[in-house]
C-alpha cells in the first residue's frame, strides 16, 4: 500500500536538509530508474541507484564537505562494523565520513507493498543510533514499491 504523504514523513527526522535530499533522491530514483523497480531488480541494485541520487544532492557534513555515501560499507574506522559487541552489520546505505567515527545516516531498504517495517532491520537501526554502538545521528527504514507499485513508498520508519 503506497503512502500518500511520504515526503512529509521523511521530514519527521527533524533535519530539513537531510529530508529534502532524501525526497529529491527518491523523486530522481522514481524518474530515472523506474524500470528497475517495475521489473523488481535486486535490492542491492536499487540501493546503489538511490545512493547515486543521494550523493548528487551534495549534503554537507559539519566540516563543509559532502558526506561520503556508501552502499554496504562494513567498516567503522579500520574495524569491522559491529553492534552489541559481536554482531557484524552491513547497513544497506550510509552517509558518513570514511575512516572516522562520524556517522550521519544509516538506511535499511526493503522492496514490496507491505506497510509494516521489518523488525530485524528496526532492531539494527536502533542499535546503530546508540552512542555506545555506532552513534549514527539518523536511522531510517524505507520500503519501496515494485512491479505494479513501482514509484511508490510503502513504509517509512525513523528510528
Give keywords.
single chain, tt1808, chain A, globular, alpha+beta, five-stranded mixed sheet, 159 residues
Structure description:
By secondary structure, the protein is an alpha+beta fold. It has a single domain, classed as tt1808, chain A (Alpha-Beta Complex). Helices cover 32% and strands 24% of the residues. It contains 5 helices and 9 strands, in the order ααααβββββββαββ. Strands 1-6-7-8-9 form a 5-stranded mixed β-sheet, with helices on both faces. Strands 2-3 form a two-stranded antiparallel ribbon. β7, α5 and β8 form a beta-alpha-beta unit. α2 crosses α4. The longest helix has 17 residues. The protein is globular. The protein starts with 5 loop residues before the first helix and ends with a strand. The model has no long low-confidence stretch (mean pLDDT 94).
CATH architecture: Alpha-Beta Complex
Task: Label the structural class.
Answer: alpha+beta
Overall geometry comes to globular
**Roughly what is the average pLDDT, rounded to an integer?**
94
* Count of domains: 1
> Could you say what the CATH topology is called?
tt1808, chain A
H/E topology pattern = HHHHEEEEEEEHEE
Low-confidence stretches: none
Helix content: 25-40%
Question: Termini distance?
Answer: 21 Å
Number of helices: 5
Short structural description:
This protein has 159 residues and is α+β, with helices and mostly antiparallel strands.
Please outline the helices and strands.
Elements (H helix, E strand, L loop, with lengths): L5 H5 L5 H17 L1 H5 L4 H13 L12 E4 L3 E2 L2 E2 L1 E2 L3 E2 L4 E4 L6 E9 L7 H11 L8 E7 L8 E6 L1
Parallel strand pairs: 7-8
Antiparallel strand pairs: 1-6, 2-3, 4-5, 6-7, 8-9
Helix pairs in contact: 2-4
Amino acid at each position: 500500500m503506497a503512502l500518500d504523504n511520504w515526503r512529509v514523513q521523511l521530514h519527521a527526522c527533524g533535519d530539513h536538509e537531510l529530508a529534502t535530499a532524501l525526497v529529491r533522491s527518491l523523486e530522481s530514483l522514481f524518474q530515472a530508474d523506474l524500470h528497475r523497480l517495475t521489473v523488481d531488480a535486486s535490492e542491492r541494485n536499487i540501493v546503489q541507484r538511490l545512493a547515486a541520487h543521494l550523493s548528487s544532492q551534495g549534503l554537507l557534513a559539519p566540516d563543509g564537505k559532502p558526506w561520503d555515501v556508501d552502499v554496504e560499507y562494513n567498516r567503522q574506522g579500520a574495524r569491522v562494523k559491529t553492534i552489541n559487541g559481536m554482531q557484524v552489520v552491513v547497513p544497506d546505505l550510509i552517509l558518513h565520513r570514511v575512516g572516522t567515527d562520524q556517522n550521519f545516516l544509516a538506511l535499511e531498504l526493503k522492496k514490496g507493498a507491505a506497510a509494516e517495517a521489518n523488525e530485524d532491520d528496526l532492531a539494527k537501526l536502533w542499535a546503530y543510533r546508540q552512542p555506545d554502538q555506532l552513534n549514527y545521528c539518523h536511522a531510517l527504514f524505507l520500503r519501496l514499491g515494485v512491479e505494479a507499485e513501482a514509484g511508490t513508498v510503502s513504509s517509512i520508519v525513523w528510528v
